[in-house]
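Researcher: We plan to redesign the surface later, but first we want a full-length starting point. Tokens attached.
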């Protein structure tokens, strides 16, 4: 695509941004939690649990427990061991995408919203309970772009991204960048937070964020980090239009915690933002159930 081909209407575009959980929301990953399950006779046996099932049984300590009481052993597939040449996250994302392309797997509730977000060049955050490094999550997004977006959709994404460059950075900046650099720059602007990653946990603790020992609270910290990052960008470009932020997650516990966080903290800190929260725990409901709306602008 020539560098003088860009979307001239970007300057009038609304400011919509998105926060996505990954598992069972964007992709159904073949990643398992390693648990012990209690049988009727009281003995415990190894049991692999999907992410969807874990959201249901994770507080059922009478019937499920981590091996040896060690949650790190339970979530070994959700980390980036140093000895692996490719992260487990990228490996499982490839498998999940293959299943969708083969027609053997139904697309999760936020799959198409994420696809549209990429096509339109919207800023987003991935906020997941996994423990991978940010670069692993980004590689998963890069894989989604290369495997899921059609050539026409990738061209549309670059057309929109170049529109943002011309509008907010100037024609000279746009002209100096190849298509590959434009996409790389865009992906670098987004946030990738795995809230059980040791470095992320250390950042939450250093900030003295209350409840740092709870994954739901760390998700709240990740969302706040994204919003602070987002508003620094909005202020830098001088945009003076309403801002809306959509959040989607398939874990009802996380959804409830985020909804409370919006009502009790974010609505006051960001009074001009329109927030929408979607519960995507029901795989048969495309886009999920709308639970909380602050403002009237539909996001999805």
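Model: Full-length starting sequence:
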């Amino acid at each position: 695509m020539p560098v003088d081909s860009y979307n001239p209407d970007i300057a009038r575009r609304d400011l919509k941004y998105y926060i996505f959980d990954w598992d069972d929301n964007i992709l159904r990953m073949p990643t398992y939690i390693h648990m012990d399950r209690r049988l009727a006779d009281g003995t415990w046996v190894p049991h692999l649990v999907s992410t969807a099932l874990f959201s249901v049984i994770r507080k059922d300590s009478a019937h499920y427990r981590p091996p040896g009481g060690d949650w790190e052993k339970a979530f070994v597939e959700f980390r980036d061991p140093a000895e692996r040449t490719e992260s487990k996250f990228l490996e499982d994302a490839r498998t999940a995408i293959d299943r969708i392309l083969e027609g053997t797997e139904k697309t999760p509730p936020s799959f198409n919203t994420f696809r549209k977000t990429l096509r339109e060049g919207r800023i987003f955050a991935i906020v997941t309970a996994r423990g991978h490094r940010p670069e692993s999550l980004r590689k998963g997004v890069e894989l989604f772009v290369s495997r899921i977006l059609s050539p026409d959709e990738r061209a549309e994404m670059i057309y929109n991204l170049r529109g943002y460059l011309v509008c907010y950075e100037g024609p000279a900046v746009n002209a100096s960048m190849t298509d590959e650099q434009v996409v790389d720059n865009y992906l670098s602007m987004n946030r990738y937070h795995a809230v059980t990653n040791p470095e992320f946990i250390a950042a939450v603790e250093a900030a003295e964020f209350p409840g740092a020992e709870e994954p739901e609270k760390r998700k709240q910290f990740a969302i706040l980090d994204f919003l602070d990052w987002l508003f620094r960008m909005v202020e830098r470009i001088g945009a003076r239009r309403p801002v809306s932020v959509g959040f989607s997650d398939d874990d009802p516990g996380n959804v409830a915690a985020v909804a409370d966080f919006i009502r009790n903290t974010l609505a006051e800190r960001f009074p001009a933002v329109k927030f929408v929260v979607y519960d995507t725990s029901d795989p048969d409901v495309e886009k999920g159930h709308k639970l909380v709306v602050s403002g009237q602008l539909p996001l999805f």
